[in-house]
Amino acid sequence: MTATTTTPLPAGAPVSKNAESALPTHAKVPSRIDGPRPTTGVPFGRLVHVELRKMLDTRAGRWLLIGIGAIIAIALTIMFFNRGGQHAFGEYLQATTMPMALILPVVGILAVTSEWSQRTGLVTFGLEPRRMRIAWAKLLSALVVGVCAFALSLVLAALAHQAAITFRGIDGDWSTEALVLLGAGGYVLLGIAQGVGFGMLFKNTPAAVVVFFVLPTAWSILSSMVSWLGDAATWLDMNQTMQPLFSGSLTGEQWAHLGTSVAVWVVAPLAVGIWRLTRAEVK
């Protein structure tokens, strides 16, 4: 067996034509590629479209949506046969929005953490190095999914209520306060935005999912057991601060409570998460 050693040339040393032809092929610099050069970056609309594909056109996202649909179907079926189907439209709406508000944030988490767990970050940030645009595209696409999900929940609730009126002979009750609709929509949108924030904050799917579900629950439990935490919960527990929305009335102080809790649980994770996303090392 023989071994061949190559002595590197010093930097700036001239290379003869014979020596240049003896260099390996991979050491030669490729010629300039012909054709027009791009003059603008990736359109923001295309970034949003790609992020929507990441959220919905994956096996995990698809099965999560199937799971949400199955839970909603079971809940509406139970309500249709329970008490003769005598439920108001607002109750059917609650049955359709609750599963979405609880599970859709996981779709937002996966849309962010997949860049690191599936190692797609090199492609994503290589094609669009301006990470701030990627962060906003992820958030906007998540909110678009939330808006579409809430619109679908309204349609399903209306269909279920009308079916109960037609086939079960109940008295229709379509009266729903505007604040109740605002609360239901806000519950879905804030939840998915919070999921995106936790995904950016942790960049790890198991950690983000566990903290997203465990931390608010633990906070609610502790606030019910410790008196001074109970006082703070009126400002920081979103489960409490959003309840007046569903009752259809909200005072100025309650709006302040809601704004404070949203700032802590939604705005702060998003702000810190975007800051981390723009500075994280992609491997």
Automatic annotation (TrEMBL):
Keywords: Membrane, Transmembrane, Transmembrane helix. The chain crosses the membrane at residues 63-81, 93-113, 134-159, 179-202, 209-229, 255-277. Residues 1-38 are annotated as: Disordered. Residues 1-14 have a biased composition (Low complexity). This is ABC transporter permease. It comes from Terrabacter aerolatus. The lineage of its organism: Bacteria, Bacillati, Actinomycetota, Actinomycetes, Micrococcales.
